[in-house]
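Box 4.2: Ligand-aware structure prediction
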Amino acid sequence: MNAAPFVPERPTLSSLRRTMQDCRGCPLYRRATQAVPGAGKRESRILLVGEQPGNDEDLTGKPFVGPAGRMLDEGLEAAGIDRSAAFVTNAVKHFKWMAVEGKRLHKKPSAREVSACRPWLTAEISVVHPDVIVALGATAAQSIFGRAFRVTRDHGVPVDTTLAPHAIATIHPAAILRQRSAADRERERAAFIADLTIAARLLRSATTDARRQTATERGRG
Ligand code: URA
Ligand code: SF4
């Protein structure tokens, strides 16, 4: 079982948002409040993919609004990427959690759940058709680039994919927040910003290519 039978044939962002709520492609819908679709404009040239909604995202229905979202915003700003011009989504659309002392704690989705949910992600990518895809962390990177991908080894290096002209992976913003010492946090934060800065450069080069193309076409016309 996977999400494919639930995904509309000719999706739009609003039809995806709506139909996603009825997905039964894996068991995760049972314990979540709602499916959390990607957010951002269809015209976004950059699309960022996280792992799955957290507690705050599950309650609000919006991706990256909690602590990891604040870390992401900070990274994007430092790299000169405007979040309002970015499409932000997740590899898995329902919150997977376990109860610990009355709190709902994030639980890593299985490879099977990630794979079941991939049709929603590929549908969002096909509607937005971004110039640059950024995978945030191992779950997103393996969903997009395959199971052999290793973020620790391959982050910050442009990856070939048929999904977009440019793609890159970096660490998950929550991984920065999990570091115990200030020094470790600072090191991970710097690596995150460095990777996002490469993504920003890819984005600018894609925009320049598109302008050049238009100018050439105009020249021909
Ligand atoms: N972590 C994620 O991967 N995605 C969110 O939307 C929030 C936290
Ligand atoms: Fe469907 Fe994905 Fe939710 Fe599983 S996690 S029920 S595949 S939307």
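In the box above, the bound molecule is uracil. The pocket of uracil (ligand 1) is lined by residues 50-54, 57, 63-64, 66, 68-69, 90, 174 (CB under 6 Å).
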